[in-house]
Queue: 2 jobs
Job 1
Amino acid sequence: MFRIPKKGEPIIDSLFQTDFYKFPMGQMIYHKHPNTIVQYEMTNRSTEVLLAEHIDIGELKEQLDHVMTLSPENSKVKALRGTNEYGNKMFEEDYLDFFEHKMKLPQYYLEKRKDGQLRLGSIGPWADVMNWEIYMLTIVTSLYMRNLLKGYSQFEIDAIFAKAILKLQEKIKKLQAAIAAGIPISFSDFSTRRAAFPFWQDYIVEVLSEIFPDDVFRGTSNVFLAYKHNVMAMGTNAHEIMMVYRVLFDSLMVSQKQALTDWESEFGLGLYIALSDTYSSDYFNQYIITPEQAATWKGFRQDSGDPFIFGEKTIRFYESLGIDPRTKLIVFSDGLDVDTIIKLASFFKGRIMTTFGWGTNLANDIGFKPLSLVVKAIKADGKGLVKLSDNIAKAIGKPTDIEKVKREVGYHEKFFVTPTY
Amino acid sequence: MFRIPKKGEPIIDSLFQTDFYKFPMGQMIYHKHPNTIVQYEMTNRSTEVLLAEHIDIGELKEQLDHVMTLSPENSKVKALRGTNEYGNKMFEEDYLDFFEHKMKLPQYYLEKRKDGQLRLGSIGPWADVMNWEIYMLTIVTSLYMRNLLKGYSQFEIDAIFAKAILKLQEKIKKLQAAIAAGIPISFSDFSTRRAAFPFWQDYIVEVLSEIFPDDVFRGTSNVFLAYKHNVMAMGTNAHEIMMVYRVLFDSLMVSQKQALTDWESEFGLGLYIALSDTYSSDYFNQYIITPEQAATWKGFRQDSGDPFIFGEKTIRFYESLGIDPRTKLIVFSDGLDVDTIIKLASFFKGRIMTTFGWGTNLANDIGFKPLSLVVKAIKADGKGLVKLSDNIAKAIGKPTDIEKVKREVGYHEKFFVTPTY
């Protein structure tokens, strides 16, 4: 059945084993701020797991060094050039040339921390360093999962994946039943950063693409797998844009507005999905997005806080602007499971369009508690970066920086649950 | 995961995808009665399953024709030559030469019967025609199972085998717990004629050989898999010997005794396991096996009737001859499941040695009722063959022939459950 990658076997074989959002973000960064020096660093939110006890530093180094030897396969650069689902010619030649021939992953730093965690990160020109994220997450997750499975025989591993297959089957049956009952469900695999192993995400994407039609299983965030299984590569942007932009401008508000117009200058409507929660979605809706943009953009991605409240507030937001929310979309992507997906799709049916980016619970549900691991931009031009999000427990940044930005935003614990428009 | 063989893909790729017992029996037949004309024919005991509705005759023909094009791989003939677990040089050069260079599977016959079953068999010199059995059973079973799975997606098939893996894991855990509790269990895979698919038996043999030591998982009846997974090829003889011998001699008793002495003239002690139930094991113990043979032979294979009663009677049989039953072995091989294996091993612990030949329930427990299919010798030199067995429901032969042999044996329904020694 499935074979756990052996010691020494490369976990990342292709630079396209990454999230699709890295490419549109990469192009905008390449065009607007390629040389801003940014630092990305890994954070293990599962603090009870002492990563340094699970992962051999030497082996992790070998894996990361291997990634640095890879060049983008030209055939896949061609596929990127030919990507037209988000508008024709979404990627420009200068950026494709940069990614294929000039992009160089900066040296990473790696050490054991005294608290048993790993300090892993990289500093370099933004257009280069931003590409590290998914490779680091995939490698660390795979090495961690492999260590958990160390004592198991091949047959016990087969049995673990047998159970995982049956859990996947249950999820599929629930989705099929919900769809048959008239609940409009469409979803994408967003597990690239989260999957237990690359082979397991590969298997899941293959299964979902065979079982569901295109308008139900929309695609995968994994570019390599999207090409392999002939489904759409899914993704737009992530917090790193808003986080770095904040320190590039004097004003938080100006920086955020600039990020939106920069995005608009790069891409067509297909990519107009706003990730609004970096400094809280209430702040975004009230101060950043203009009524014209609200009318033009396709919708929002919800990535923190209560998704039902987010949906209700989004509907009221559109209504307050005289926009019919039924013409707009919410992409839910925060810690989804199948029951939440069905509940949300059912709850908002006929009121606002919904789709789902399904990650950890889709491809890291094999009987072990998944790591909550992120690689985030933490500094730009020497200044500390901050993400607040709609759930303050997910805030990222130095406490003093977080407090400063909270004050600037007017963020308080109730802010994002009380509609202000 | 597992891939069901596609239409047109050969199911039998090697003439060693057969039961090991075919080779010792083959050698004795080659030496003693190579040219006796014998007819082998398939019987589907699962009469409720109309095979002709499940299996395309043309495809079955293609598969059988393909088997007729195969030659024994010389490397595996060498392995046969080097087989020494049953005594050095168990196979003689003339027989090895025959099997490698001269043995020719006779033409088969195949047609739809009016009752919806398939008439499939072959007639020819015994030393040739006896080799058809396992290839026919494997092909028919695979085509039948493939038809059952026809409507399933690859993922549904994955889920079926995921469940089958978890069932296998349960069985393994039960065996391990029983062994840990001091119950002396050893067993072999006897599923060559019964496995759902060759790949599934392959997987199971691989798993068992990795999990259990040699003295627990003793080996497999499948010669090809024994070599592939480096375990012992298991098998001695089957009913066809006793059935054909009966019509080669005037007297039932003389023929059976001759079969035993012919066997002794061919092989060493390692193969001295008597399959006693062809005309009932009571008859065999009372009239066929001599006290000297009972003392010399390692033991019996139990293949029909109540295994607990068989064991009790075997113990009393040995005791009546002044032989310590604890030095003797029963190989149980009739429709075993894990609970029966554990019960029998526990029940006879310290009284007589036991081992188990585990077939259908080991390798055809994937959620569909397995076929009860046999290919048996039905005629020799134009005379109808009979097998009574310890369970008259398993009797084979024309009713008039069965009645005749029953009278000759003195078989009545109670005969084999009432000890007569």
Job 2
Amino acid sequence: MHFDTHSLAAADRLYRLNLINSITGIKPANLIGTVSEEGRENVAVFSSVIHLGSNPPLIGFMRRPVGDAPRDTHQNILDTGEYTINAISQSFAQQGHQTSAKYDRETSEFEAVGLASEYLPGCKAPFVKESRLKFGMRFVQEIEIPLNGTALIVGEVQSLHVEDQAVSASGYIDLQALDTVGISGLNSYYRLEKVAEFPYARA
Amino acid sequence: MHFDTHSLAAADRLYRLNLINSITGIKPANLIGTVSEEGRENVAVFSSVIHLGSNPPLIGFMRRPVGDAPRDTHQNILDTGEYTINAISQSFAQQGHQTSAKYDRETSEFEAVGLASEYLPGCKAPFVKESRLKFGMRFVQEIEIPLNGTALIVGEVQSLHVEDQAVSASGYIDLQALDTVGISGLNSYYRLEKVAEFPYARA
């Protein structure tokens, strides 16, 4: 199957959306937790969380164009400066996905989908209790992508909580042991099975 | 296991590197193919390829700080304006990983690791013949992240090649059917098994 710029542009809008959302490969499945200045909790699934650097420990994620829809996560991060990122395991993938529905600002997605919030030292924002790998973030910078009105939200890791048995002596996290899932496109979920660990490559 | 900013900063450098490289979850495994103005081919594994938008179809990836090491991929993209992104399947994951070794600029990683290059209509840069999902890119913009000297390289999809049987009627790509792998940290590879396809979520 081959596409060029013309056949891509001519494709059905939803078909193209699904296709282009799928071509980069597997994406991490994370829930971002925030709280408004008035104390209203929010949690939403994101598949765009990305490692930006280890020293300082910087993590990014993409926000959609402002004005596209209510974006409580973005507003809460700007208002409070803090958020949490929580890995999704297979056991609560359905609830995690359900957070992508457009609930109104008064509704806590935690309550609506049946996930528990928890507060941990050093972070004002709520974590997802069910998550087995989660970290607290401090907002650092928003880097706009002028071409399509999206932006990369950059933050620094402030705290990290992960189940002991999943962390190797050298610091690697075993995603299979945590039953972490990945996302393809907008709604396909994949479980992960470790097949290889290659040594540092030398020429 | 818990870390705060102090215990993270105090951790062994390599341990912290592995840990922070692992916390975002599964990452896509892609090979980026380029060619220099003199016609020297280059291919290198990247785990930071990210969907930025579908209309126009924009894809990004992170480049490391300039001057960190020879960065043929980056230089070739700036020089020629084109590159390819090729999904890694399990059958050639080892060769794909081996492209991360520091070969000198005169060496083609295609030859060094045993992958075949191929040229397809509408793109000057080489594709990876073994890849079952690949797309040609036109360089659009480099967006610097001042905090750590990295940058997001933004490009637009120009062409797409994917095996017919992996594309659904609605445009989704089945990553398991293509035996596509994911990466955790720097060197752990995972195979993907589709476990759920959830409907568009409604409140």
